[in-house]
């Protein structure tokens, strides 16, 4: 009963009003709070961008100092969270561990349920942004069976993350500032992307007025999938499978025949080159200048060239997206493939929280509850089991 518009995947349905991120997919434009992504990637830092997304304006020097202090203050985890991570099998996927441990934070901070208190929201937001790298790094070290490295709050956000991941495996480890900068840019590029699958999950779950850890836990689950954040991991597996440039034409034929997708290509919104992919290509050059070129780069470049000239991809407006080159950089930075999506999650956390915060304060927002087009049986008589 009642009329409903059938729109699977919300291709044409706006689920909210938002002032956080603007995208023009045909023109390849991405702006956070009105600032072009290119300018933010060049001039800003991840924490500054996080502040911008959450507060609507770039911080003054004093505000940035306070914000950096607030984040730094919350980087440590309760020791029981460490035990939670230790309970996972040695081969647990870090995204599974991240999803579970972020959700578990809701039990450590029951005060987070006071979502209509602005100061409390601010506290929980700082907590979660601060703890994400620690959780990601602990999940990584757990997989390796290595001792955890606690946060060093003298370091910057991104440097601290790298140190927690890699420090004790190489005692002299000190992150190269060029690599820290490249990783910081990658986090900026991932920081928000309006109503993507995981943000929609955060908003949808958040609309029940649950605490932000539970809502973001749901977002991490959505991001895990190969059509969303998991694509960066899938791209590397694909490039490795292709193996040499000679195999590309055969691979492309398989894609066109519908056997598989060209991972890292295509986007619901961008029908033009993803502006983030352009910036990543440049960051890749900076990283490879330090680490040496990733041998899979040659295959990626050739694959992109062939696809961009092929009618199948041209007709469907399929271009490289953010995930096509990001995995190559992550690999050069020594991240194993299963950590790639964790990096995406750390980057996306300010965006999820900015959107959650906007949702909570939006008086017009209602609990997410889409309609359906019912295709099943109508009323039937119950049949006793002996008669079925
Ligand atoms: N390889 C081959 N064909 C493709 C691809 C691809 N990567 N992407 C879309 N198509 C085809 C699709 O088969 C369809 O063809 P047809 O019209 O003949 O049926 C047409 O292009 C339109 O695709 P769609 O599935 O309707 O597009 P969508 O907006 O529902 O899906 C997408 C968008 C990103 C899920 C999809 O392009 C895809 O699966 N890409 C590969 C996975 C990927 O790289 N994901 C990362 C997305 S960007 C970062 C993020 O959001 O996490």
Secondary structure topology:
Layout: E1 21-24, E2 29-32, E3 35-36, H1 37-43, H2 46-55, H3 61-73, H4 79-86, H5 94-108, H6 118-144, H7 157-166, H8 177-190, H9 197-206, H10 212-224, H11 231-242, H12 248-256, H13 275-291, H14 296-309, H15 311-315, H16 322-332, H17 340-361
Antiparallel strand pairs: 1-2, 2-3
Helix pairs in contact: 1-8, 2-17, 3-6, 5-6, 5-10, 6-7, 6-17, 8-13, 8-17, 9-10, 9-17, 10-17, 11-16, 13-16
Bound molecules: carboxymethyl coenzyme *A.
Carboxymethyl coenzyme *A binds at residues 196, 227-229, 231, 255, 261-268, 316, 318, 321-323.
Family: Belongs to the citrate synthase family.
Pathway: Carbohydrate metabolism; tricarboxylic acid cycle; isocitrate from oxaloacetate: step 1/2
GO molecular function, one term: citrate synthase activity
């Amino acid at each position: 009963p009642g009329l409903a518009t059938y729109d699977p995947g919300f291709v044409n349905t706006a689920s909210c009003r938002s002032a956080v991120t603007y995208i023009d997919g045909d023109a390849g434009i991405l702006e956070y709070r009105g600032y072009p992504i290119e300018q933010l990637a060049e001039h800003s830092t991840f924490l500054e961008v996080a502040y911008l997304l959450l507060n609507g304006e770039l911080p003054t020097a004093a505000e940035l100092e306070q914000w950096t202090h607030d984040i730094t203050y919350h980087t440590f985890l309760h020791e029981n969270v460490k035990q939670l991570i230790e309970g996972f099998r040695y081969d647990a996927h870090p995204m599974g561990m991240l999803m579970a441990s972020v959700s578990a934070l809701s039990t450590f901070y029951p005060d987070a349920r006071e979502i209509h208190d602005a100061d409390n929201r601010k506290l929980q937001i700082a907590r979660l942004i601060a703890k994400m790298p620690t959780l990601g790094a602990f999940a990584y070290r757990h997989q390796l069976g290595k001792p955890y490295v606690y946060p060093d709050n003298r370091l910057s956000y991104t440097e601290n993350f790298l140190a927690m991941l890699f420090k004790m495996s190489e005692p002299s480890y000190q992150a190269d500032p060029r690599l820290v900068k490249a990783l910081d840019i990658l986090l900026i590029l991932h920081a928000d992307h309006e109503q993507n699958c995981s943000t929609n999950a955060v908003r949808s779950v958040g609309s029940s007025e649950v605490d932000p850890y539970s809502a973001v836990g749901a977002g991490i689950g959505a991001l895990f999938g190969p059509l969303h954040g998991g694509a960066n991991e899938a791209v590397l597996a694909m490039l490795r499978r292709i193996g040499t440039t000679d195999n590309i034409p055969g691979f492309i034929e398989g894609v066109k025949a519908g056997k598989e997708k060209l991972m890292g290509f295509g986007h619901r919104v961008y029908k033009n080159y993803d502006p983030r992919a352009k910036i990543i290509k440049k960051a890749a050059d900076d990283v490879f200048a330090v680490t040496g070129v990733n041998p899979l780069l040659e295959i990626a470049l050739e694959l992109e060239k062939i696809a961009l000239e092929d009618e199948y991809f041209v007709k469907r407006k399929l271009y490289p997206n953010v995930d096509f080159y990001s995995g190559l950089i992550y690999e050069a930075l020594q991240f194993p493939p299963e950590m790639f999506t964790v990096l995406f999650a750390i980057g996306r956390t300010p965006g999820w929280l900015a959107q959650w915060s906007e949702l909570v304060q939006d008086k017009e927002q209602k609990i997410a509850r889409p309609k359906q087009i019912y295709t099943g049986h109508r009323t039937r008589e119950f049949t006793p089991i002996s008669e079925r």
